[in-house]
Each structure stands twice: as C-alpha cells, then as structure tokens.
Amino acid sequence: MNILKKVLLIIILIIIYVYVCNISMLPNSIILMQGDKLNLTTALGLIVQDEEAMEASSNLNNSIVDKTGKIDLDIKLFDLFSLKNVTVNVIPKTTVIPIGKAIGMKMYTDGVLVVGMSEIEGKKPYENSGIETGDKIIKIDNNVIDNTDELIACVNSSNGKSLEIQYISNNEEKTTKIEPVKTSTNEYKLGLWVRDAAAGVGTLTFYEPSTGEFGALGHGINDVDTLELIDIASGELVTTNIVDIVKGEDGSPGEIRGTIENGTTLGKIYKNTSFGIYGGIDSIAKLNLVNSQELEVANRDEIKTGKAEILCELENGKTESYEIEIQRIFIDNNENNKSMLIKVTDEELIQKTGGIIQGMSGAPIIQNGKFIGAVTHVLVNDAKSGYAVFGDLMIKQMREVDNK
Asked: What confidence tens digit (pLDDT) does each residue in 134-154 have?
C-alpha cells in the first residue's frame, strides 16, 4: 500500500511539473498578423481566453485572430484558476515591394567588441580581469569608448597606470581593472583584440511603402571571431558593386562577391536580429523601383508546397526571377529562420550559381502573387537546397524593432 501511495505521489508530482514547465514556457507577449491562428502550446485543461471580449466558456487557442490591436489573454486551468496573462499585439495585414537587389551593409557597435586576446611582451594583462571574448568595452576611466581609436588613445595615455574598465558581459554591466603593458615600440597594450564595425554583402528583401522601412537578409550578421550576433548602435545600407559570382558545389558553398567602396548610402540600419536586418530608406528614388509591384504579405497558412519564385541580382542593375520548389513548410516554427525547406529548380540559375550561394540570403520569395518569405541558408551538402524564413516573421520582427 505504501508503494502504491509513493507511485501515485510521483505521478502527481510529474503532472504538476509538466504543467509548471508548460506555463513557464508560454511567452508573456507575442505578435500576430491579422488572419494568423493563435497557436499556443498548452497542456490538457489549459484554456486561453480574451479577458474582455470572450465568454467564460470560450477557448481562443487555435482560432484565427481578425481583430487588430492589443488583446489580453488569460490562461486558465479547467476554466477555474487563472495562471498566467499573455499580451497579444495583432498587427494589420500589410503590403511590401519585393526587391531582390544586392546591397552592402556597414554596422557599428555600441562600444568595442572583444574578439580575442594575446600576450604582450610575454605578459597577459587581461588575466583575472573577468573580460572574455564577446564582451563589449564601453568606458575606460569613465571616458566613453565608441571605437577602437578612442580605446587605443586612452590606453596609450595611461603611461602604464592601472585603468578602470567598464564592460558588458551577457547583458550585465561590469567593472574591472587592467594595467597596460609597455611594448618594445613604446606603446601600451591591454592584450585585447577589439573591433568596432562590421560590413558585408547580402540581398535587400523588401521595402514597405506604408512605413518607409526595409527588411534584408532574413538572418542576422554574426561576428566572424565570436560567432555571436553583433549588437549594433547604428548602421548604413549602401549600394554594392558585384565583382564576381563563385559557383557553389555540394560541400562547397559559392558566393556573390561585391564591394561597397564608394557605395551610395540608401538608408539607416536600426537593428541586427536573428530574423534579418531592419531600417529605414532615406529616399525611395534611390531604390529605382520602376515597375515594381506591391504585394500582400501572406499568412503562413496560405503558403503551399510546390512552385514559387525568387528575385535576386547576379549582374549589376539586373534583378531577375528564378523558379524554386517549396518542399516542406514548418508552419509552427517561430523559434528560428528555418521556416521552409526550398530547392532551386531553375536551370538558368543552377548554371549561373550552382543553386543557393552566400550573398543570396534575403532573396524574396513570391508565390501566388504574394510575398511569402526570403532565402536564408544553403545546405552545404546540397547546393541546390536550403532554408527560407516566413515573410510574416520578418514583418513581426520589424514591428518589434519599431516598438523599441
């Protein structure tokens, strides 16, 4: 009998644990696009209700949300106990102009990013300071550090005196001290390799006429040394000049090679996110959108497996449409930018690039007259195949950026 009680107790504790985990994993707030289905992963017995508009017996989960604006949801257990509140911001459907042009990006960090460390004259001045690769230095002796030149000037003017350094590590501001080491060339060094800017070439995905904003890449830009998403303070979207196309092969991704030297500034970059680069266009005329068509952004349940097309620029000033096939749709995926599995089927594109290549990230995807997403990744072992992100995820990410 005692064994039975213990078993029952264990089962009850497991059930409680499952419910606690499920409730804690529910987001505090989410963004939906008008016409989206509210699809919260809930355990048996959990009911999702609109605090204001819904009757007590109604369950909103898995229903289509047509009302725009803010909705306050109440998560209840068996319609008896209120367990959690979730705020839903429903944004109206929108239209965008798919672009597909190759563009350049210049991004500047807030502070300087530590990307490595090395000994100075056989010493490690950074040792035991707590600073690690991926941290950002923001002040030295209360002097704000915006770039590497300012850091070098502060360190050299120290004459070897211990410096108080403020830095950010894992979103937490910290303070430490480092005593610079004098080199054989009479310079002072901390032994830290730092960077204050990054640049790259990709594809401009869309322009939204109603806001004057753009989305690009469909994925974020990571630092080449730390592999972390670069936290930027500002950035510029600039024109690029395509200089070469390196054809991809299975096991060896190709790339679009371009230069942004002497590039014309198109706009400002506001945010570098895991779902793309976002910002504003300074002048619509600079995009040269002659005969470009404004398309509605599709809800993901409108996307179908089968034929679609992408827009991309492989020759300067020449954006063309190429056929692809959508092979799989991961309709419930809101966690990353691998929303769809796609394959290039256009023989002309395969001849030019071998399939999907680096720099093609952000190429807009159109199906049945609607913008549905953007190319994000190539499969290394299959150059013709890769992943794409949902268009609605890019719009939602852009709205999150707008609200910050």
From this structure: 888 888 988 888 888 888 888
